Amino acid sequence: MCAIAAPEVFGSDEIGNAKVLITGEIPAALHAKVRRAESNCPERAITIIE
Amino acid sequence: MTDTQKPVKDMTTDYDIFDPEFVKNPYSGYTEIRESQCPIAHTERYEGSWLPTRYEDVVAIAQEFETFTSRQILVMPPVEGRSEGAYAGVAAPPITSDPPDHHWHRRLILPVFSPQSVAKYEQGTRDLCNALIDEFIDKGTADAAADYAQHIPVRVIATMLGVPLEMEPEFTEWVRGVLENMTDKEARIKAFMNIVQFFMGQIEDRKKNPRENDLITELMNAEVEGKKVPIEYVLGVCQLMLVAGIDTTWSAIGSCMWHMAQHPEHRKQLRENPDLWPTAIEELLRVYAPVTMARIVDHDIEFQGCPMKAGDRVLMAFPAANRDPRQFENPDEVILDRENNRHVAFGSGIHRCAGSNLARLEVRVALQTWLDRIPEFELVDQSTVTWVGGQVHGPRKCMVKF
Ligand code: HEM
């Protein structure tokens, strides 16, 4: 789901587990998408640190 | 009188997941339980089970795999004398596996279902949907469940496994025997046996005539820590693919079609704003979550005040969790651009659906293709729509006109 909401930030590794694609701070332009990924992650696996 | 024929006295102490009214519309029953003093209901029917209905409880149980094991995952008890494994003595990894084996049982199949891997089925699925629509588009009427939804996932899975597409009617019949007619024990065993025998034949055939590029072959060649995986694993995964990948997805597509037939405003919204598709699919999966799974309690435990005993069956009503107002605002309303949607249609925790990316793709492509070709349509008659429920919930007859 995160990969659908914010494909610039989330993808999957070779066995299909979710992984973060970028390092460091998330660019401002992607904040809304990342928030969406967070509020839709059924595993609550995403934490946003402001 | 059998368990199914007795009238239900009280939802919180005597629910019946196969009651015809509940099968048709389980949501008011779930709400009644969820909002009562006793949000984890219990019944003596079908050898007894617990039914948590709140999001928080369902998710907690799904996460606690040591207490709530996956030794059995069907909502009905196994047929006597066949208590080992979920399906007539054959396990169904990874869904019936507990840690530590669950890890490799799941890891081996995950790559097949990554978003990148399933993308290669998109065009084939679209072609298939178009071919199905060609059959009835000139008639002005069709059964959106039986003429359309029912044929899509079974062919995708058959292609993936590398088994004959012409056997679609048999695959469908067997899977329905396992998941739909659950109160008929004899039929269930027969369906299981058919599936197991079929895949044993497929495996034998590949030993004699090796093939390339199909999932059965890939599984047969797979190695874990330098050793070929046991053939029981291959057999178990194959039958799970059939059982988990077909009825579930076809029910989801069917419910979405039933919804779209009654909501021209949602058809319009998607037509005008195709960017909505991904969130719309999640929302439809939330509202029409087709699957309920079970767990077996490992040791005596008091859970939220309920005295659960080792060996008790707990039904994880994901469809009930998905409509809990504590978690979702206006839970019974379909809001295609819903902002917060941590739905559990695909479960939660270590057994979360491995095929979810494929399922999403199939549901989206099936709806998009239909709405492209048949933008305006409606139900012929609500009263003639038929449903199945219990383990999997969805329409089986759903006539529409256009
Ligand atoms: C809309 C369609 C689908 C729904 C709603 C659905 C739902 C679920 C749920 C709720 C679980 C969790 C089981 C548990 O907690 O015991 C699950 C597991 C699983 N599903 Fe699906 N499923 C769908 C389609 C598919 C498809 C298309 C496949 C692939 C062929 C598939 C393969 C699996 C597998 C292999 C597991 C077991 C994962 C594990 O135990 O680690 N599912 N599914």
Structural commentary:
- The complex is a heterodimer of chains A (50) and B (402).
- Chain A has 50 residues and is of the alpha+beta class.
- Chain A has one domain (2-40).
- Chain A has 2 helices and 2 strands; from the N terminus they run H-E-E-H.
- Chain A has helices spanning 2-5, 31-40, and strands at residues 10-12, 18-20.
- A two-stranded antiparallel sheet of chain A has the order 1-2.
- Chain B has one domain (11-401): Cytochrome P450 (Cytochrome p450, Orthogonal Bundle).
- Chain B has 18 helices and 14 strands.
- Chain B has helices spanning 11-14, 20-24, 27-34, 55-63, 101-107, 115-119, 122-136, 144-148, 152-161, 168-179, 185-208, 215-221, 231-245, 247-262, 264-272, 277-287, 318-321, 356-373, and strands at 40-43, 49-52, 68-69, 141-143, 223-224, 227-228, 293-297, 301-303, 306-308, 313-316, 378-379, 386-388, 394-397, 399-401.
- In chain B, a hairpin with a 2-residue loop joins strand 8 and strand 9 (306-308).
- In chain B, helix 7 (122-136) runs parallel beside helix 18.
- Chain B is globular, with a radius of gyration of 21 Å.
- The model of chain B is unreliable at 83-88 (pLDDT under 50).
- The A-B interface holds A 1, 3-5, 12, 14-17, 36, 39-44 and B 107, 110-111, 113-117, 278, 282, 339-344, 346, 348-349, 352, 357.
- The structure holds protoporphyrin IX containing FE.
- Residues 62, 70, 73, 94-95, 106, 157, 240-241, 244-245, 248-249, 252, 290-291, 293, 318, 345-347, 351, 353-355, 358-359 of chain B line the site of protoporphyrin IX containing FE.
List its salient traits.
heterodimer, A: 50 residues, alpha+beta, two-stranded antiparallel ribbon, 2 helices, 28% helix, B: mainly alpha, 3-stranded antiparallel beta sheet, 18 helices, 46% helix, binds protoporphyrin IX containing FE
Layout of helices and strands:
The complex is a heterodimer of chains A (50) and B (402).
Chain A: H1 2-5, E1 10-12, E2 18-20, H2 31-40
Antiparallel strand pairs in A: 1-2
Chain B: H1 11-14, H2 20-24, H3 27-34, E1 40-43, E2 49-52, H4 55-63, E3 68-69, H5 101-107, H6 115-119, H7 122-136, E4 141-143, H8 144-148, H9 152-161, H10 168-179, H11 185-208, H12 215-221, E5 223-224, E6 227-228, H13 231-245, H14 247-262, H15 264-272, H16 277-287, E7 293-297, E8 301-303, E9 306-308, E10 313-316, H17 318-321, H18 356-373, E11 378-379, E12 386-388, E13 394-397, E14 399-401
Antiparallel strand pairs in B: 1-2, 3-7, 4-14, 5-6, 7-10, 8-9, 11-14, 12-13
The structure holds protoporphyrin IX containing FE (HEM).
Protoporphyrin IX containing FE is lined by residues 62, 70, 73, 94-95, 106, 157, 240-241, 244-245, 248-249, 252, 290-291, 293, 318, 345-347, 351, 353-355, 358-359 of chain B.
